[in-house]
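Appendix B. Raw example, untouched.
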Amino acid sequence: MKICIISGSPKGEESITLQYVRFIEQAFPEHTFPVVHAGRDIKKMEQQREAWDEALAKVYDSDGVVFATPVYFMLVPGQLKRFIEMAFERDARSAFSQKYSAALTTSIHYFDHTAHSYLHGISEDFGMHHAGSYSAHMEDLKSEVEQKRLLLFFSDFLDAISEKRAITREFLPLPKVSPTYYPSTQSTVVDTNGRRVVILHDAKPGSDQEAMVRRMAALFGGQATVADIGDSLMKGGCLGCCRCAFDNTCVYQDGFRDFWERYVVPADIMIMCGTIQDRYLSATWKQWNDRSFFNGHVPALKGKQVGYLVEGPLAYLPNLREVLAARAVIGGANLVGIVTSEQGNPGEIDAALAALAERSVRFADKGYFAPVMFSAIAGRKLFRDEIWAHMRAIFQADDRYYRSHGYYDFPTKNYLQRIGTRAFSLFLAIPGVRKKVEKDMGSYMVRPIRETVQKSRVIKEWRARQE
């Protein structure tokens, strides 16, 4: 069989992910593996129709397709995102339709699940039968156990093709949403109280996104700065070269860093606006997010209030909503809210935009940041462990930040707590003590929290201020 590999890495043959493919190729010499270097050759495919047609011919001529890609910023690299956009724009779905697909990614398992959900959904939108996903740690191929696991996965993929396995669709097709939002001309204005508000967008004239951006800017009474991310003059997408790891300096010499310093860094409130294209926002937004990796694995949005304006059927894309929320909170920001135009009721959209503007200023004034949940906590700990274990020699800027901000806090620096926990564990080894603790477990657990509620000085101070 011919298994077409759509490689998302901008590194071409130097891609770590592609080495997993080469490993499979050696194990299955009876099959061929033509490669479409979507990540490396995307500009050529955009500019030269011959290059695009050559890539598409490999897909047409294949028995199955494997999307083999690193995970960049919770998804596929911007270059592969652009390849997928082009497939829809140039009506190339027939090349993919009815073929079996699989996804193979390498990463440090940071939001690899959202990348796989995206590729799964896209495969189904292409009319493909998605037969499975394989998420490898970048170092997994060094392990014989993982090598065997990979070969079993790929063998099952081949079986799916040969036996024409029945596979049910998992993701709902996306409805087409036409521009319907015409903002109010009411003169309601939200005072920024001196807070610096930045609205970033990639809106096309006449789009719902453009209308929402215009309305949001009006709500701030001309006090907000509005900037098109296309004006950052990016020469290309992230190359995955990691040269920024040493001192946060990107290998590109273009306008992106200046744009970031001009608009993102000084913002107290940042509103990011985009239009859904192929289960994400645009490839321009994906590239913009990828390029922000020059900041490394640190919370580059720390202290900001962040909101989103989204044109398109976000209610159909919980995966995208998760990515947008995580982009904010893992960056250290407070997610104020997400407003979409999908409900199509101008009055409701107006009210939602006004509420987002008002709450973003109020939260900025109060210094409110919602408690973080699993994604932020797990993400931070994953970065901490990976950088400490084997990445800090290269990611020196991250290492310096983590050291100075106390990120290396494992197992715990609270030695009295560690001693107390160990002593209590030994105490519970006494049968009589354990029996009593088991009997009174509920009251034992709640007692210190109940005492905190009763003695809280914060409550007294809060009530005094209200009076």
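End of appendix B.
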